[in-house]
Amino acid sequence: MSSARGARRPSSPLSLAPPSKRPRLQPCDATELVSPQVTAQTIQCTETLYPVSAVPVACNSAVVISPRMQHSLSMLEQESHQLRLQIGEKELEGKGTAKSYPRQVQNYQLWFEADQARIAAHDSTRVLIPAFPVTAAKVTMFLHHETTREKYKQGSKSTIQDSSLGKSHVAQVIDALEKYRLNQEHFYPRDHETHVSLRKDSRIRAFESVSRHNEPKRVKKSQTIKAAGASSDTYTKAELMRCSLWCLTDFSGPQYIFVGIRDRAMLLVSATTAFRGKGCRMLEWSDLFPATVPLDQTNEIQVLAALAHNTKHNQTGQVDEHGAIRHVHVELCPVGALACLFFAHFHILNSAPPDFVPDFSNKSYGEYGYRKWYEYHVFYTGCPTEEMSYENHRDRISTMHVKNNINITKKIHAGRHYAAQTARAHGASVNGTKALGGWSDNGSFNPVYDRAFPLDTLLCAGMFNARRPEDYALPRNSITPPQALMGQIFPFIEQAQQDLKERTQCSQLATDIALRQFLSVLLWFRLVLLQDAALLFAKHPELPVFHFKPFNTQLFRDYAGEAVQVVAHAEEQAKMAFHNLPEHLVCSLKGLITSMTLDRHAQRTENEALRAEVRQHMETQSALLAELASSKGRGGGKSNKPALRSATTKAAAVSHPTHQVNQPPAPPSLLLQTHASHSPHAAMPNVTINISAPAAQRMSASAPASAVAHADTLLPLTLPAAARSESSAVFSADQLPVVASTSPSDPRSEKWAALLAKHGREKLDTHEWEWKNSDWLPRYRYQPVDAITDVWTEYVDGLNGYLSTRELKDRWGAKWRRNEGGLKTEAARRAKVITLIEQLSSKPNWNVPLALRFVVEKYESSPAYVGKVRAFCDYLQKDGGAGFQAVLAAAAHYP
């Protein structure tokens, strides 16, 4: 092909003309930039850096650039590349590659120079080749050295015999030298090899491909899988638990206690949200917000959500949301760990709340002003506005591993591996797990990678069963801490919320959605912290965090002791309730029963507080009325209005009851009235005490009768008690202590004391009582039942806190039914079921649990009798007991 002047092969690289052949311009004005002798044809054939249109005048001589222009262009070139290098340095800040890349480049330089010296010493015909600029040929030789040498021992210059470096190391070497080549290529404009990417060279690609291909053989040779286990390169549950408790235990002094709590929170957040190390370090206060996910049509789960908008996997500026729920194990709960971290910041370090007021004087931040608290990091070192460094993060995790004898290769990414593995092990879907950690899916992941939280993965990360979300239950979430304790945690929240509201009303530019959400998170953290601390205190009272207020107060100790008992009792009740049921029913209903038991206890505790208060008022009124009666006797026929007013005034001064587990309700209002008696035998006016509680304190109709103290059963109550008719009085149990004994041998007091000793106050409180025929007679209605076995439970243990029907029968016979037709009919109907269970359990090799299991599997679970207890009772009674005999015959072939 003709080599005409100016022609260039298509494959020839674009290069700059040598400086000696570049067109030059002498100092002159714009009209003198180009010599008049240069023609247009000459310009078109001249190799320059600029298009022909930039030349103002056609001439016949070469274009000449002045030295000043050449200097300016050179400086512009250097400044533009310097900006690029600065951007690259900022991109590496806080990453492990900021130190590993320079280390690899230094290793390359030292080896290459030593290798060239060795070659030159053995071959006099060869000269030393410099290590720079980096080219594919030089890197190829270095890769050959790296893939054939042995690994160095950690922290030592000695090597591990018969070891080799893997594909990850080879990839990092290539990445580091490629990064250096890109940063330095502008210094070698005429060297073609310095402008070619290393991975485009076939020699480099061959080494990288071979390293990947040989990785399985290398691992097999080193026996890593057999020695360490294929899936053991992350935490086990026991190891994570050990690390969590170590962070809370092995530190003393406020500053070090804070460090331990911070490291624990950082570990647990990563282990449940699958955050990368960088994602944890850059997490800020303003990134936290509360959210919920629907569990079913009526229930929701509270989620702690966090924004992630500049992590390693997200370089497009998209705002991602990660979430976590409370863990089934309090030691591994990320929400509780973060709540404890903020407690350490505000209460252990005694740090003041930040200034949430925006600074509108700083014009660099736009019309919404500068908000310094936006820069506060969750996991900080020294100052909240300073992000933790990669080195510090790695050192803290490494120390944690050493102290707890954990041998895994991962450090800051270990929690990310654990989160993914735990989620999958507990039934999370692949797409849900990818959404949890932000793993890319090349487009097919887009339907999941949105702002919706993956419910299955959230449940699995908290070690709940994603395959059965209906089983979700968190017993400690049903405990309400005392308000006195709640008010001591983050006491600035309410004032900050009020200030934000006032600022927003004054100016829309003062709106701060992030602050509103963050304060809501802190309010939730109050509850979470006290609930989790109660259980932790029961297991580990020696933890240093419990030396700080309010955990070192008697109020917290009392609350913690009662809370643990309540949770344990609720779980035990749920376990006992399902002792005789099939496994699939147990799994479905266990969480529901546990929550119902805790709610019932909370209602009962609140009602006990109300009853104690009412009892106190009534005792006071009894004393005042006795005083009133005596004043009436002393004053003859004089009016008792002054004494009555005095009694009313004293009654109003009755103090409030002391603290209970739930916040006690407001005291009921009392109204003391007198009215003339129409009985000719009355010796004094009747006095009626009307007590009414606020509507907000009345329990719902669905609450069990044991938890309700109805005003209509309490009142009106006419005093004194000695004047009452013995056969017409009906009392609720909480009224009985008010009935004063007129003599030490009062039979009512003796009978009531005997009942208390045998059955306990809790069961007696659920009934109304009537003093009849010199005995206390309870009132009871058969409870609604949905399962056949509930009839037996009502007979043996009682339902909804009432005395069992067997206890009623043994103590009062049939008198408690008061000859009511409905009760007699229902008693006969349910007696068939009771007789059936007794006969079945009396068979050889049978017992009560086996009899109940037989009834559940053969009849209770069948469509004909699901929720139809009466239909089964009628079946047992029909045809003169033929159904009863059919059941006994079926039992002969069971199990």
TrEMBL record:
Short name of one Pfam family: GCR1_C
Domain spans labelled Transcription activator GCR1-like: 786-849
Protein name per its UniProtKB record: Transcription activator GCR1-like domain-containing protein
Biased composition (Low complexity): 1-19
Record GO terms (molecular function): DNA-binding transcription factor activity, RNA polymerase II-specific; RNA polymerase II cis-regulatory region sequence-specific DNA binding
Lineage: Eukaryota, Fungi, Dikarya, Basidiomycota, Agaricomycotina
InterPro entries (UniProt xref): DNA_brk_join_enz (IPR011010), HOT1 (IPR052146), Ndc10_dom2_sf (IPR038279), NDC10_II (IPR031872), TF_GCR1-like (IPR022210)
Domain of life: Eukaryota
UniProt domain Ndc10: residue ranges: 242-556
An annotated GO BP: positive regulation of ribosomal protein gene transcription by RNA polymerase II
Region span, Disordered: 1-25, 629-665
